[in-house]
């Protein structure tokens, strides 16, 4: 079956903070905007319960913040498609091509805001226990651990947030991290005050055990060298993220960590292709900087498209 | 009738429900947070500790959001 060919002014890849902010700005400039999202709208912040560092909000959930942003973008004409997955891209052509399972999009500009995916638990038993004790979505699967013993693996803000959230369900939560906390001071203080949570720093998870479901884990206390077995019903893995750049690796320069190399103006090495948000190699990756990148990318994409149309 | 075992604040459950709706498929939401029987059924069907679980007959099911598998399930 031949796929229909559809023209867009700008295709935005990813519907997180950067992508939806870009969609809002591009929509307000009367561009014909399509946002494609393979995963969850909102990306990493979809699971965030209390965002307290986004200006203008004392505290807001990720779903509320991103839901409002999506409505804002759609109000100005942006279309968000979360069901049609991208198969391949050709960025050096003009127009550029973004091919999905169902359509071929020709587009003048592309804004890549594909963000990051949660890193999988790097143990051979991960596959055996995936969804049977090893989980990556607290919101989806936390409920299954009513009155159970849960381990959260990780030491950043996302892990701390997950541990706090899971106290709603579990009778005991272990926060296990191989080094020291990376979470901010406010989050650390909050978690230390929670009586259901036991913090185990400088501790590594070495093995998972269980018949059909996870029953226990082996942990190594790195300071004492002691290896012990801990009864645990489920692990929620929050050990960082990796950039979602597989689609672009043949056309764009990636940093050693796999992120797209682009300037603070979000311009990549290819004219008309911009990288915004966490997928761009940069020192600071916050929600606010993702919004900033989305803004910059959309405004410069509009300039690029205007110049392109003048030359035709 | 398609049944979606899910919980209230679950992004992948929402995505599954939106996808079924976009295909014009009628479905019943079985919220396992609000109904213990649904929770037991859900675990019995999949044997997993994860939602969403989408099924028609309680035997064949789709775990999580998987477009291709949902399409196959709907197509029967």
Give the low-confidence spans of chain B.
none
Oligomeric state, counting identical vs distinct chains: heterodimer
The largest pleated sheet of chain A is described as: 7 strands, mixed
Main CATH class of the largest domain in chain A: Alpha Beta
The rounded Rg of chain B comes to 11 Å
The arrangement of helices and strands of chain B along the chain is EHEHEEH
What's the total helix number of chain B? 3
Q: How does the overall form of chain A come out from the CA principal axes?
A: elongated
The helix/strand series of chain A, from N terminus to C terminus, equals EHEHEEEEEHEHEHEHEEEEEEEH
CATH architecture of the largest domain in chain A: 3-Layer(bba) Sandwich
CATH class of chain B: Alpha Beta
How far apart the termini of chain B lie comes to 11 Å
Q: Provide the CATH topology of the largest domain in chain A.
A: FAD/NAD(P)-binding domain
Largest sheet strand order of chain B: 2-1-3-4
Q: At the fourth CATH level, what is the homologous superfamily of the largest domain in chain A?
A: FAD/NAD(P)-binding domain
Instruction: Give the helix level of chain B as a range of percent.
Output: 40-55%
The fraction of residues in strands of chain A falls at: 25-35%
**Considering DSSP H and I runs of 4 or more, what fraction of the residues of chain A is helical?**
10-25%
CATH superfamily of chain B: Glutaredoxin
């Amino acid at each position: 079956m031949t796929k229909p060919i559809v023209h867009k002014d700008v295709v935005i890849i990813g519907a997180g903070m950067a992508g939806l902010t870009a969609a809002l700005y591009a929509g307000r400039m009367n561009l014909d905007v399509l946002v494609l999202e393979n995963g969850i709208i909102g990306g990493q912040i979809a699971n965030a319960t209390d965002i307290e560092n986004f200006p203008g909000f004392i505290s807001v959930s990720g779903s509320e913040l991103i839901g409002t942003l999506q409505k804002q973008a759609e109000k100005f004409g942006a279309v968000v498609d979360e069901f049609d997955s991208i198969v391949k891209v050709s960025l050096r052509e003009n127009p550029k091509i973004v091919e999905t399972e169902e359509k071929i999009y020709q587009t003048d500009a592309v804004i890549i805001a594909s963000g990051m995916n949660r890193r999988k638990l790097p143990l051979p038993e991960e596959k055996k226990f995936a969804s049977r004790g090893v989980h990556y979505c607290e919101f989806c699967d936390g409920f299954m651990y009513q009155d159970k013993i849960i381990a959260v693996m990780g030491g950043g803000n996302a892990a701390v947030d997950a541990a706090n959230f899971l106290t709603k369900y579990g009778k005991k939560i272990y926060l296990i991290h191989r080094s020291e906390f990376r979470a901010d001071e406010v989050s650390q203080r909050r978690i230390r005050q929670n009586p259901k949570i036991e913090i185990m720093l400088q501790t590594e998870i070495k093995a998972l055990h269980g018949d059909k479901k996870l029953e226990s884990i082996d942990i190594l206390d790195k300071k004492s060298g002691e290896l012990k077995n801990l009864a645990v019903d489920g692990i929620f893995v929050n050990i960082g993220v990796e950039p979602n750049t597989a689609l672009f690796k043949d056309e764009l320069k990636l940093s050693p960590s796999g992120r797209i190399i682009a300037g603070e103006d979000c311009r990549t090495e290819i004219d008309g292709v911009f990288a915004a948000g966490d997928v761009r190699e940069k020192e600071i990756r916050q929600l606010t900087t993702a919004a900033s990148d989305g803004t910059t990318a959309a405004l410069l994409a509009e300039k690029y498209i205007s110049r392109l149309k003048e030359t035709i | 009738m398609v049944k979606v075992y899910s919980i209230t604040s679950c992004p992948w459950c929402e995505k599954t429900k939106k996808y079924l709706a976009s295909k014009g498929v009628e479905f019943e939401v079985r919220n396992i947070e609000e109904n213990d029987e649904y929770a037991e059924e859900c675990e019995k069907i999949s044997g997993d500790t994860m939602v969403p679980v989408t099924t028609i007959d309680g035997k064949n099911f789709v775990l999580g959001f998987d477009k291709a598998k949902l399409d196959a399930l709907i197509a029967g």
